[in-house]
Amino acid sequence: MTLTASTVSAGVSTSVRPRRRRAVRAWPAYVAIAPFFILFLCFGLYPTIYSLVLSFQKWNGLGAPEWVGLDNYVRLASDDTFWLSVRNTFVIFALSTIPMMLIALVVAAMLNNAVRYSTTLRIAYFVPNITSVVAMAILFGAIFGESFGLANATLNAIGLPDVRWLSTPFGIQLTVSILITYQWTGYNAIIFLAGMQSIGSEVYEAAKVDGAGPVRSFFSITLPLLRPTIAFVLIVSIITGLQSFTESQVLTGSSSPTNPNSGGAGQGGLTMVLYFYQQAFSHSKLGYGASIAWGIFLIVLVFVIISWRYNVKREDPTR
Amino acid sequence: MSSSVSPRPLPPSGTAVTAPTAPTAWTPWPAPVVPTALPRRRPRQVGLYLMLTSGALLSVFPLYWLLVIASNTTSDIYKSPPKLWPGGHLVENIGNAFDRVDFLAPLVNTVFVAVAVTFLVLFFDSLAAFAFAKFQFPGRNALFTAVLVTFMLPMQLAIIPQFITMVNLGWVGQLHALIIPAAANAFGIFWLRQYISSAVPDELMDASVLDGAGFMRQYVTVCLPLIRPGLGFLGLYTFIATWNDYLWPLTVLTDPRRITLQVALAQLQSAFGQDYGMIMAGALLAVVPLLVIFLIGARQFIGDIAKGAIR
Q: Within 10 Å of residue B61's Cβ, how many Cβ atoms?
């Protein structure tokens, strides 16, 4: 090591020598961080740049790719199926995120007031988040099955008519949303709870002295002070929700040999990422698929930035 | 952060025993006499626990229903009204799943991939995090910022070229197509750097330097013993995520004899759509091992997840 240090620093000017020498002496640290950066260059950065190039090409995976300039993006802008998938994704996002956030807030507020069995309760609420999405999507397919499913059996038992969960576009969107809500409400409640517990009890004591009841202090203290946590949960929900794939892919039985990954009845379950997957891997349109991927990236980015500015910036005017 | 900061005073712990909550609260003898100091608190607590318990039951109900379907014959499931409790056909249904599609190989593959990815991630992420947290070297801050930026790149942007790369490397259909790209990640480095900064005191680092310890010896003798709980969290997190991963395995595992559980499960469903008993037995196999592992570390895990988000 000393040998390397002296040979390297011998040829450099005195001004860069200390920095260079420090860098050489710190070689174990560079070796330690190298695996991540090597993997990222090979499987992160290079594929991302390549996909940008690919989005200007037409290629089915065989033979030579053909350069088509902006054609893929022009086609994307007027592709009705793509815009249908955007619409579906936003319907599912709204139907799942709004109830999920509201229920999670209520559950967190209740857990915050519960002293006994709080660990058991927290584990029970968290369990849906670690169960496999594929397994749960198959199970929900059975529960929301139209003639023998538990959901319709329950509706019938209380005198309501059957709902066509899996054979209408809105039914599919509703079922996918219920599945997403089921898997993420407990997780978000745990995060809201941690945010609530970091609020000092003195604030609540002071409010109580001023005569504020529990409901009033929830709206006047908990919600405003919880704002950074709510922003975090919202941004994570936007990123994951706008890129949902597995739920609708499995629920709509997408391995059908004739028209795979098409999103079920009326293509109601066709989300943006499912459409991307269908074009790229079921129809082998690799160039067009890449342009869809960039389209999705832009849409997600715009919404993350909007919610970031709205929530975080207003929170902290100095930023 | 205290574990149970409450905005309102709560009744003395003796009173809550009478609340009808989890079954463990049930006692064969009469409940202790409730102190009359807080007469109006009790109904509210009872209502609170009633709602919390119903929510918790709703959370675990699908798992119960999975067991019900997996342990009954398909004709039992199609009965109206449906059977609401577990039957005696679980072993038979699991046997069917193993017979019709070879479910054993996917199970072994999934365990292998999840274990391999978990150990590689723990090793490479903790090495990198240790370097970022405890060593000064030129470019450190810029490189750490670069790690954070890689967070932002979404998966599906890279998935087509990554697939093409796998074709060129001849890795398509091979399990290492799942393992190698996942062997280190930005989240783990970020999380462990925070952890190491607070868990490994600088004095210990200085003392080990005086003992003549080099980087690797400091990593093994000073860092690793102190960050075991942090590694436990990251390990569990990585294991769960790898076990449940679907999109990438579905894309790259083109050889039907070499797939993971999640892919096998989706295929089982599309091939035998109506044999619910067998399909749910397969789903149960995909869920239960993970559930057991999760429950062992759940308490610590949930605390760490929450702390990570608040930071």
A: 14
Residues of B with Cβ-Cβ distance to A125 under 8 angstroms: 55-56, 59
Residues B22, A120: C-beta atoms closer than 8 Å: yes
Number of structural domains, chain B? Answer: 1
In tens, the pLDDT along B192-248 reads: 998 999 899 999 999 998 888 889 999 999 999 999 988 988 999 999 999 999 999
The answer to whether residue B7 sits within a structural domain is no
Find the domain containing B213 and state its range: 101-271
Q: How far apart are the first and last CA of chain A?
A: 45
Residues of chain A with pLDDT under 70: 1-17, 254-258, 312-319
Tell me whether residue B94 is in a domain.
no
CA neighbor of B45 nearest in space, from B78, B74, B20: B20
* A271 vs B contacts (CB less than 8 Å): none
Q: Is residue B156 part of a domain?
A: yes
According to CATH, what is the number of the domain A75-315? 1.10.3720.10
Is there a contact between B131 and A138 if contact means CB atoms under 8 Å apart? no
Mutate to test the interface with B, among A53, A59, A85, A132 (most CBs of B within 10 A): A132
The whole-number pLDDT of residue A207 equals 86
Residues of chain A found within 8 Å of residue B247, distances taken between Cβ atoms: 245-246, 273, 277
> Does residue B167 surpass a pLDDT of 80?
yes
List the alpha helices (DSSP H) in chain A. Answer: 2-10, 17-25, 27-40, 46-54, 71-77, 80-113, 118-130, 133-143, 150-157, 169-197, 201-209, 214-217, 223-225, 227-241, 246-251, 272-277, 286-308, 314-315
CB-defined contacts A:B, below 8 A = 304
Interface contact flag, B65 A150, Cβ < 8 Å: yes
What is this structure's pTM?
0.84
pLDDT(B21) > 50: no
**Domain range list for chain A:** 2-54, 75-315
* pLDDT tens digits for range B48-98: 899 999 999 999 999 999 999 899 887 777 776 677 888 888 888 888 888
